[in-house]
Amino acid sequence: MNRDRFQGKLGRAWGRLTASIAHGGTSAGAPSGDRSSRREGAAMRVRELMTGDPICCTRETGLPEVARMMVEHDCGAIPVVESRESKRPLGVITDRDITCRAVAMRRDPLEMTAGDCMTPTAITVRPETSLEECERLMEARQIRRMVVVDDRGGCCGVVSQADIARKATEHDVAEVVREVSRPMAAAAAMA
After folding, report:
1. Euclidean distance between CA atoms 31 and 60, whole angstroms
2. Quick check: 63 and 109 in contact, CB under 8 A?
3. What is the DSSP letter of 153?
4. Crossing angle for the helix pair 131-141 and 170-180, to the nearest 10 degrees
5. Which of 51, 63, 178, 187 is deepest in the core (most CB within 10 A)?
6. Which helix (H) or strand (E) holds 125?
């Protein structure tokens, strides 16, 4: 598919998505939040849309290396694991973590590690987890990415909003974007 056609399709999909969110439903008219009305994504599992074998770092990985990894792998988040062998997730570091926890605090990012800036919890799902359950966790925790772990508890994938946007129904995309993007004050009031 050429770039102009792709951008045109992306623009049309984005327009439908934003209209859907603004109207509190989907472009097809199904009420927002009514996951039982879904047809296409009802049986979808995390393994069907996750990005497998993600790049990982350890707590000791320097921020310049983490940033380089993000650029090379075109991602904005990297799971932080116990070791490269076990790949047990300890947390996640995002480009926003680096900006807010280092640069904005006037600390020298060249002297910091992933452990200094990471979000110290990784909410995880399994490859067999339903897309519906994964979305609910993302919405409840207001996170844009979920770490996927295998039977040994090692990181084997990541599910992001972008993965959902590429492979899930329009309803799924609208619901996840709306709930994850809700202002924190509104989220606290809802709890």
Report:
1. 46
2. yes
3. S
4. 20
5. 63
6. strand 124-125
Q: What is the pLDDT along the chain (191 residues), one digit of tens a residue?
A: 544 554 444 445 444 443 443 334 333 333 344 444 343 445 789 999 999 999 999 999 999 999 999 999 999 999 999 999 999 999 999 999 999 988 888 899 999 999 999 999 889 999 999 998 998 999 899 899 999 999 999 999 999 988 888 876 777 677 777 777 777 654 444 33
- 113 - beta bridge partners? 62
Rounded CA-CA distance 110/4 in Å is: 39
Query: Residue 151 to residues 14, 86, 165: CA-CA distances in angstroms?
Result: 36, 12, 27
Q: In the sheet that 51-52 helps form, which strands lie side by side, from edge to edge?
A: 51-52, 155-160, 145-149, 124-125
Is the Cα dihedral 59, 50, 122, 93 positive or negative?
positive
Residues facing 79 on adjacent strands: 92
Beta bridge partners of 168: none
90/40 Cα distance (integer angstroms)? 34
The alpha carbon of 47 is separated from its chain's Cα centroid by a whole number of angstroms, namely 14
d(CA 167, CA 109): 36
Superfamily of domain 45-190, CATH level 4:
CBS-domain (3.10.580.10)
Residue 180: count other Cβ atoms within 10 Å of its Cβ.
Answer: 18
